[in-house]
Amino acid sequence: MEQKYAIIVAGGSGKRMGAEIPKQFIELAGKPILMHTLEAFYKYDYKISLVLVLPKSQHKYWNQLIQKHSFTIKHTVVRGGVERFYSVKNGLDAILNNGWVAVHDGVRPLVSQDTISRCFDEAINGKNVIPVMALNESIRKIKNGESKAVNRNNYFLVQTPQVFSVDTLKKAYKQDYACAFTDDASVVENMGYKITTVDGNPENIKITRPMDLKIAEVLLK
Ligand code: C5P
């Protein structure tokens, strides 16, 4: 069995939260969001190799949090980049062997064990996998001041973890950065590879705004 890896990206500044401390360090149910996220992957497979991407300026603070919470899950910390793309690239540089790699947003602590399993299982079957959710609300396309209803059945929300073979993801991240690369699937797809979707879980929200924190707090209890 080849090695499994998870790159947990938390290299962003978290500006939208408007909080004093970066959102990944906000405590939910007694510990920082990032610790819940790392635990989810450790719980899925205690042999997984965890790579945490954090801005260099936050490494010291993270070490203090590790002491404070007696956090014992082993992980490698690497520095973040100016865009998510570069943060993932730095994470990939810490992976030296073949296997399967999940890239997961650090601010999605509520990813379920089933979602992680579904993504890795399909990746091991040779697919490039992303978890998605159907839309519940009606959607419209607004362009040049005109709005038009579109069929919501044709659109899905994309979550993480996104799972690939290490080889595929490393090849994809050799491309030059483009602003259309908002996730890993968009980078891999740009190489001409097909993307396979599996069900995500509705609780797997990306904690972005203050309201998301309230929802996550309730869900984690
Ligand atoms: O900015 P966005 O909300 O899309 O970020 C998604 C994830 O990517 C977050 O976990 C964030 O910390 C991470 N990120 C990163 N490096 C950046 C920007 C975002 O690791 N430069």
How would you characterize the overall build of this protein?
By secondary structure, the protein is an alpha/beta fold. It has a single domain, classed as Spore Coat Polysaccharide Biosynthesis Protein SpsA, Chain A. 31% of the residues lie in helices and 25% in strands. The chain contains 7 helices and 12 strands. Cytidine-5'-monophosphate is lined by residues 9-12, 53, 80-84, 87, 105-107, 208.
- β-sheet strand percentage: 15-25%
Mean pLDDT: 95
Q: Strand sequence of the main sheet, in spatial order?
A: 5-4-1-6-11
Share in helix: 25-40%
The molecules bound to the chains, other than polymers, are: cytidine-5'-monophosphate
**CATH homologous superfamily grouping:** Spore Coat Polysaccharide Biosynthesis Protein SpsA, Chain A
Secondary structure: number of strands:
12
Report the end-to-end length measured between terminal Cα atoms. 35 Å
How many helical elements?
7
Name the helix and strand elements from N-terminus to C-terminus, one letter apiece.
EEEHEHEHEHEEEEEHHEH
Q: What overall form do the CA principal axes indicate?
A: globular
Specify the CATH architecture: Alpha-Beta Complex
Under CATH at level 1, the class stands as Alpha Beta
Rg over CA atoms, rounded to whole Å, is: 17 Å
| Major β-sheet annotation | 5 strands, mixed
Q: Write down the CATH topology.
A: Spore Coat Polysaccharide Biosynthesis Protein SpsA, Chain A
List the uncertain runs: none
